[in-house]
């Protein structure tokens, strides 16, 4: 009987060992499989660069105020915003204000207001290229959307109220006046519209004198 049991246990133990070996091999194969390749995270889209701080400057909305300047005329001194060059026709204490707004069509509306000037008289006024200085000439020539290659510019093809900014006005009995002009002028990205100059008379339009308006009486520094 003992020999018979040994004969029976032998095949059973052999089958068990073979099964264990198969299981071990299967686990080894599973453990030996290379791990699935990790997928890199999706790349973030590159952001466009906008200005010094990465911010995109907003375009002016229609009706949005873009520039506003005002001042009280006084004889020139360092830091003065509003300067008078003729104290009789632009008395110290008189004032000027200018406002610029964007229009729906992409153009500009410029509005000016004046107080305390000579009553009931005509004045000329234009946007000039440079800030105010000790003399009227420091304000430079008129701003022109398309610059006249000939200086001084007195050709009506360039010296006209569409290419330049003309703001002639007439004062009331109190010496107050106002003027508004609208046009397709574009000041963005330019640095040649920096003052409003008051002139002695309304602006001429004839060839050879186009754009002229007499002496420069006063100046208001204003960046458009």
TrEMBL record:
One of its GO terms (biological process) is superoxide metabolic process. Transmembrane segments: none annotated. GO terms for molecular function: metal ion binding. Pfam families: Sod_Cu (PF00080). Residues 56-70 have a biased composition (Low complexity). It comes from the Bacteria. Residues 26-155 are annotated as: Disordered. SUPFAM superfamilies: Cu,Zn superoxide dismutase-like. Residues 99-219 form the Superoxide dismutase copper/zinc binding domain. Belongs to the Cu-Zn superoxide dismutase family. This is Superoxide dismutase family protein.
């Amino acid at each position: 009987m003992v020999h018979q049991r040994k004969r029976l246990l032998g095949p059973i133990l052999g089958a068990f060992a073979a099964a264990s070996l198969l299981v071990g091999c299967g686990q080894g194969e599973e453990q030996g499989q290379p791990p699935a390749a990790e997928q890199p995270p999706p790349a973030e889209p590159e952001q466009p660069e906008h200005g010094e701080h990465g911010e995109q400057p907003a375009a002016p909305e229609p009706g949005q105020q873009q520039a506003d300047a005002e001042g009280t005329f006084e004889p020139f001194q360092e830091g003065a915003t509003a300067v008078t060059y003729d104290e009789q026709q632009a008395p110290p204490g008189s004032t000027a204000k200018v406002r610029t707004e964007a229009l729906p069509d992409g153009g500009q509306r410029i509005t000016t207001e004046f107080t305390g000037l000579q009553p009931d008289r005509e004045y000329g006024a234009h946007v000039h290229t440079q800030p105010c200085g000790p003399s009227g000439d420091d304000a430079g020539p008129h701003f022109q959307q398309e610059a006249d290659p000939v200086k001084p510019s007195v050709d009506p093809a360039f010296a006209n109220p569409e290419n330049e900014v003309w703001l002639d006005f007439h004062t009331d009995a109190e010496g107050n006046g106002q003027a508004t002009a609208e046009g397709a002028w574009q000041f963005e990205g330019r640095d040649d519209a920096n003052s409003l100059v008051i002139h002695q008379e309304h602006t001429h339009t004839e060839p050879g004198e186009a754009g002229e308006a007499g002496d420069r009486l006063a100046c208001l520094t204003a960046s458009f």
